[in-house]
Amino acid sequence: MNVGLKILAALAVSLGPFAAGLSKGYMSPAIASMQDPHHKNASFTVSDQQASWIASLSLLGALIGGILGGVVMRYGRRSILLAAALPYTLAWVATAFSTSVDMISATSFCGGMLVCCITMITQVYITEIAVPEIRGCLSSVSKILSQIGILISYSLGAYLNWQQLAFVVATAPILLFLALLFIPETPSSLFLRGKEEEAADSLQWLRGPDSDIRQELATIRTNILASKQYHNGRAGKLKVLLSKRLTRPVLITCGLMFFQRFTGAHVFSFYAVPMFKKTFRMMNPHGGAIATSAVQLLASCLSGMLIDNVGRLPLLMISGVMMSIALAGYGSYAYYMTIFMNSTDLTQTEPGAYDWIPLICVLTFTIAFSLGISPISSLLIGELFPLEYRSTGSALATSFSHLCGFVNVKTAADIQDHIGLYGLFWLYAGISVLCLLFVVLFVPETKGREIDEMDPKYVESLCINR
Questions:
Q1: What keywords is this UniProt entry annotated with (predicted)?
Q2: pTM above 0.85, yes or no
Q3: Which of 392, 72, 464 is nearest to 230 (CA)?
Q4: CATH value at residue 162
Q5: Residue 365 sits in the same domain as residue 457
Q6: DSSP string covering 371-414, please?
Q7: pLDDT tens-place string over residues 11-27
Q8: Which of 1, 215, 257, 376 is the most exposed place for a label (fewest CB within 10 A)?
């Protein structure tokens, strides 16, 4: 079996998450640039509240994009990625030419809607083309490219203003569009639309020209036909939504998405530079953001090597423990800075003597987040949902995820005003502890499990669940 072609296809669609990473990394240096009074080309000023709206509206757009992606996914994974790529470039070009807060807020919303479609469908595409032995690794490829995108934005953001950086982000969807021209649609998607000959050609391309695909093709054909009959036999939308085959994966994936969003990761992503300015006394905030992104990239690479060998659950549990400790530590340091900022002991110390403490806490959190809950929660969306509910389930989980992200990013500044930066991160630490309990009690291990259309026992499971 030719593994190289599957990797090539995964790399091609992972240019979507790369574009998403560029956009995620854009916000932190861009907001700092928009609020910089020395920015020569500034045609408008941005307050803290306006900055929170600009950052959070991309997530509100992603909420709509998750629903839209679930609806249009039935028309093909590759086809929708092609359709979304160039409009996403146009959204970033419009961002670069924005002349008001309202305009940049609108482009942020539209960009978030498009990039959510891209990232959600990318995960489904990778899940459908991969064999179980390397599915976790291939899924991590998209996370790694996303982290590379964040690192590039943070690094360039130290030298470019927000308009110049927007033009850089605009190039990534063009690369995605060009790469998609050279890879096939997923066999599962083609079978679902009745295109059996094209599905066979796609599977042959993915498995290699010398591979015997007859048995795998027959299994996929049988399972998809059974799935269609099962789905058509379910009377009414309400009965479909209440099916155990849908509700259990929805509750698990939405639970993981809630914890992923409310453990502070998005606050670090969107407000890294402004936040480091509040806790660093001497260290360059841009340098801290770049170091964080570089560590996140290395942790994503490590996760890719471990996820198919160690399993999903051990990594999730390690992630929960490390995040709790790191967030509690950062909150404690912020409390220390708040209480003792003007004390004699602190003023007599060398400026910047304690800057390493918050940096270590953030780096530890970043490693824990990138090692476990970040890649695995996305991977489980593709693995847990049955074939007949994959579009619906992916849309529900992804939309819920971005709703949580919007609420978290928009309210972080308000919560900080009421309970302080230290209170905000102690809250996140408590949520991380609950995340650990949730993983232990409810999340199943999916290491080595076949997805439905490739599972020889899938038809039997449909009969049992009727």
A1: Cell membrane, Glycoprotein, Membrane, Sugar transport, Transmembrane, Transmembrane helix, Transport
A2: no
A3: 464
A4: 1.20.1250.20
A5: yes
A6: HTHHHHHHHHHHHHS-GGGHHHHHHHHHHHHHHHHHHHHHHHHH
A7: 899 999 999 999 988 98
A8: 215
